[in-house]
Amino acid sequence: MSGTEFWTLGVIFGMACVTLVPRCFFFMSSEPWHLPAWAQRGLQFAPIAALAAVVMPELVMARGQLISSLQDARIYAALFGAAYFFWRKGQGQAVLGTIVVGMLVYLPLHLVLGW
Amino acid sequence: MRRLYANAQAWWRHPAFNHGVRDMAVVLPGVAAWGLMTGVAMVQSGLSPFQAVVMSLLVFAGSAQLAAMPLIAAAAPVWVILATSFCVNLRFVVFSAHMRPYLMHLPSRWRLGHGYLIGDFSYVLFTKNYHHPAVDESGRREQMAYLSGSTLCNWVGWQGSNLLGIALAHAIPTHWGLGFAGIMALLGVGCSLASSHLRRVSAGVAGLAAVAAYALPFKLNIVVAIVSAVALCLIIEATWPKAPGVSGRST
Hints:
Order of helices and strands of chain B: HHHHHHHHHHHH
Distance between the termini of chain B: 38 Å
Largest sheet of chain B: none
Order of helices and strands of chain A: HHHEEHH
Strand order of the largest sheet of chain A: 1-2
Oligomer: heterodimer
Structural class of chain A: mainly alpha
Number of helices of chain B: 12
Shape of chain B: globular
Largest interface: A-B, 73 and 94 residues
Strand content of chain B: under 5%
Helix content of chain B: over 70%
Distance between the termini of chain A: 44 Å
């Protein structure tokens, strides 16, 4: 095994450790400890905030800049995907439908029109 | 050891296990397309297939894998690569605070195992299904069965597609943009959470903040976005506690 190969495997192992720490951060220790009530109330807003924070830049940014043109397949895919969700809400496979509709809008615009 | 096995079996056989698998199966096409493209990206940016497989199995964190790739390719200092992976995963610190009361009844190595397996989708689906930690043994068993079902389904789907991507790395061009299906899956799950006014406020604030703070290093914009959205929602809730429709307790 060459030196760089070894270096890379070491880095990968290190990554496995440092990505595990945040995942277990608050439940690693067995010490009794309770979240303050306000934090517990606040946590109900965290999941949707995390999703929005991950998704939004992926829709409206390119190469670190806000996109300046509306000829971008991602925006229309997201609009149609979300519209489908709220149209079919509560009818089982709405999330799956969002993925399918979003990609049906995205792929032609992206691959054929180059948006 | 026997007790651990009995524990695992009790979860495996519980109907909630299948429920968890089914809930995850709905977003699996998005997870799989995303995993496929992450596998492709790992090899195309210069990892050997062996290294890519090791990374996929050990790290199991899509966003951290993708963020570290260009740094590894450029032979960046190790601490920069590790700091980046850590910070990209910082949102899980918030998730772990949320999951703590649900998991503390388990021995620590099981908690560690759940920590490794938990991903964005499993966290969101779990907390959407169970608003409060169970108070009795049968409730705990049901919650752990559900969590195991959804995380294992996610793990198998992600690993399978990741390995496929590594194998097909030179057959699937990244410019097709198949990985975008992962974003659509996140969007769909996000829509399913938008069930109260304050939750929608939270999503809006976090989305704007993540874009505004995009220039921060290590994807810290995501952490800034979560913290500011949650803080603003708490302030609104405290300022107008009885405003019509502002009840965050719905699904």
